[in-house]
Specification:
There is one protein chain. This protein is mainly beta and 175 residues long. It is 2% helix and 40% strand. The strands form four sheets. Strands 3-4-5-6 form a four-stranded antiparallel β-sheet, with no helix packed on it. β3 and β4 form a beta hairpin. The longest helix is centred in the C-terminal third of the chain and has 4 residues, at 159-162. The radius of gyration is 17 Å and the shape is globular.
Length: 175
Amino acid sequence: MPGTEAIVAIDTATLAETKRYQLGKGVQPKYPAVAGGQLWFGFDSPSSEGERGQIGSVDIASPEETVTLGSGMEDGWYSAPRLAADPGAPNVLAAAREGSSFTGLAVYDVSEGTRTRVAHGPSDTGPNGESQYQSYLYDFDITPDGKNVLVTVHPVHQCASLCRVLPPPPPHWAH
């Protein structure tokens, strides 16, 4: 809910609030995604310095519903990253940089309750060493098996160079 510094669960039948997860002063969550038994979200750090984008989580499987906010700028997101997950690959979380002329992607294994980055890209250097320009992120998602990240950028014709940047995840993701 905008301006609440919280994530709110809403009953789909009644549209009534059923749960509120307080996140902390200045934390405005964006782009929620469920993976690894947790509710993940992107957010901008209340700090106004440097790369502010971070990823936080709420352990919705535990009775304590522990909130964990990203610490430091471990992934270099300059603003809250967009997140994606799919129930078919329950331990895979993908993140993408939005609003930048260089589209950044990352894939995390969240099977242990924390994020472990297993892939990131794309490089700004092409396969033959040439400089390549990546365009603005339009949308992205992960496939139901968790093995691919689908990316569209603007202009769309540049998608081909982004779609091949992430290797398939380790075999244990295919369960």
